[in-house]
Amino acid sequence: MKSPVVTATPAIPMRDARIDWTKGRVIGFSVADRQSDAFEVVQLHLDGQCVVSGVANRSVFELARDLAGLELPAREHSAFELQIPARGLHTGMTSDSVVHLEVKTAQGELIFDYSLAGLRDLLRLTDVPPTDLLYDVRFRGLADGSLHGTVVDRHRTGIRPQLFATLNHHAPEPLALYESSADGTVHHFSIALRADRLVDGANVIRIAAIDGQPLAAYPISLGAQQESSSERRIVALEAELAFLKKMVLSQNLDALPARLTLLKGEIIGICSEMMTLQRVNFEREVFGVRNDANHVHRLPVQAAAAEGESDVAPPAPSAAPVRKARAS
User: Fold this and answer.
1) Could you tell me the fold of the domain covering 130-219?
2) pLDDT tens-place string over residues 39-71
């Protein structure tokens, strides 16, 4: 007579977790001890550093749909939900870096680990992702009484931007996105310029996040234009530099190292442009050089000599004025 086959009962899992990309979070459950009513403390680590912790005391039925695929534990109130805080981002996290994410108990027992693909995955799991790290605002210019431009998803996170536009000192209005690319990384916008909000002289359109974080500014000047193209460019660069200064001073301290890394390159580029324009103006003032590619560059004395050739040939200029012009 054969003895009955005894089927081993599968062990009920004590801990498990997964990433919910739809809502940008890490969810799971952890049971401290079947014989104890205490709740487990769980921690989220990035590259070995704990950035946030929480208590696994939520009902697993609240997250049952999102926990699909995992075997549920025996204890109902053992679920948790974790997101990366913005302050957890640092300068070493770039688009190309791989960040090791781990979820552990307070005692160091591993629950879940995953390799994140740089800022793209990090920002998708951040509780309040910094808008200036998410998007790049680019202006295309004025047409048909409107300012046109695009909002580019820097790291292809797929998060749709919610931005606001302000003309001068009027109340901000939602930035209307009328078209997006197929992959959702480029969004086109148009801002209608209301005549009753424009003033004679300097105007500015500002793009900001929903929390007021400034992202970009577009200066508009109305009225007679007396300045040269180089002078107008210097004014625009000074306005852009003032905008970057305001953006640095007005933001909170969350993700500040990562923000400063991003701004460093932009400020260096602006300073380089301003130095180039200063050199052009210096050449114009000292050597009489015009900012025109089709113009033959001449010294002031040479230009005067060329103009008088058709009448009476002037006496040959001495070398002293030329040396003086070059030395001044």
Assistant:
1) Immunoglobulin-like (2.60.40)
2) 999 999 999 999 999 999 999 999 988 988 888
